[in-house]
Amino acid sequence: MKKIIIIGAGITGLTIAKELSDKYGESVLVIEKEAYIGGLAATLSQDGFTFDLGSHRLHPDYPQKIFTYLKETLGVELLKMPRNGALHIQGKFIRYPANIFNFLKVMSLKKSFILFTSYVLNLFKHHPKDVKTYEDAMLKTVGKKIYLSLYKDFAKKLWGIDPSLIAVEGMKRRNVTINLKSIKKALSGKTGFFFYPKHGIGEIAQKLEQAVLRNHVTIIKEAQLKKVFLDNEQKVTKILLKDPSGKETEIEASTLVSTIPLDSLHQMIYAHDPVEELDWRGLLLIYLHLKEPLDLANDTFYFPELTTTLGRVSNNNKFSPFLNSSIEGVFLTIEIPSGPGEKLWAMDETQLIDMCSRELVKTGICKSPPTILNHFSIKLDKAYPLYSVGWEEKLGRIYNNLKKIKGLYTLGRRGLFLHSNIDHAILQGIEISSIIIEGHQDDLFDKKVKEYREFTARD
Ligand SMILES: Cc1cc2nc3c(=O)[nH]c(=O)nc-3n(C[C@H](O)[C@H](O)[C@H](O)COP(=O)(O)OP(=O)(O)OC[C@H]3O[C@@H](n4cnc5c(N)ncnc54)[C@H](O)[C@@H]3O)c2cc1C
After folding, report:
1. CB atoms inside a 10 Å sphere around CB 362
2. With a threshold of 0.90, does the pTM exceed it?
């Protein structure tokens, strides 16, 4: 019998698998290229340590129905944790999420005055309506002086290219600017909180996996989608999988839901007619087990300046006291934005560990060079969509070609080239499964995708 095949066992793929298999049971099949499930929101274990692929948390502003789904439908145990982030700027730590008032604290009175005046004057300045780049948008919103002092290097570090080459979506997709809400929050003095699954962010994927397995769904791990076959009417008929031993298997498909990077999928189907690839940003993850306790009690440290290589450092124990609770010392996750072809990406683990160790001391997270008891590292390719100038045209060509294929749905963070969060992944899984169940309503699917393009990611 032909299967409904879902490619990718991340949160989107597993949610859609759960929802579809609630109705169609074993007709659903999930294919995952890794040995683990959860995709970017996986929790892994090594040498007795449990860790996420980078700092993940559930933000309190997710729609209530997502929390109900997590807790009541899936049975995920959520902890409410205080948010106690710290932003390293000009050699000092300030509160994060930060706003203009926090920034002004680390500046001299003179610099604060100059920045504040420039911000106010900028409000009355005439700016062109048609803003195309991140740089133009920031100049319009916060003015030249604040942009150069606080945002330019951060954008360059995060995305690896000059902000004049980043499209305006690079700002829209992340809530980084000053607005009335941020000012009100700053004045209230509240630090906020977040939710986190007791056993790591991967608990969401684990609960979804349990639900699909109960519905008799097969999840084939360590198998990569390699090819999609179409008939004369451009309808999906079967797929080709490859396992690590090189063995290839063909499976007949009635419907194909893909959550893999959109351009990779396009390349498989239109290898004879290639188009320009999308730009992505990778992430280096370094995990350190330190003997000594930290000097600072924060859960996460952010490093926006180019003078520091570290991007974000998380103290895992502050996310859930149930994780790595039996280890002595501290277990840190260090994130460094980097990608294939870059110097940092090519460094070996020893070089990376040395550099991290030095920077932990330089920034004041550690008092003296830490004793590293254990370490490992992971490279995440295509972790973030990079909205470089011209991305919409490239995406349009790819999406419009794939749209012609009947029985194919491409979804999720990398499947739609969307800088998005876990709540968005769950929402897509729930909504698109119901569209499929109600009978392949392509117009409705396109309408939903347009809605998803308005998502804003929180950090
Ligand atoms: C560093 C980092 C921090 C984040 N922090 C947060 C946070 O704090 N809060 C939040 O809500 N969100 C956060 N996110 C976003 C969140 O992780 C994602 O939105 C969500 O996990 C996306 O799920 P997905 O299923 O759409 O995609 P993915 O997780 O990308 O899943 C796609 C799956 O497809 C598989 N795959 C790829 N190619 C193939 C192939 N050829 N064949 C078979 N399988 C394939 C992959 O292995 C993967 O499992 C963060 C993301 C990153 C990178």
Report:
1. 14
2. yes
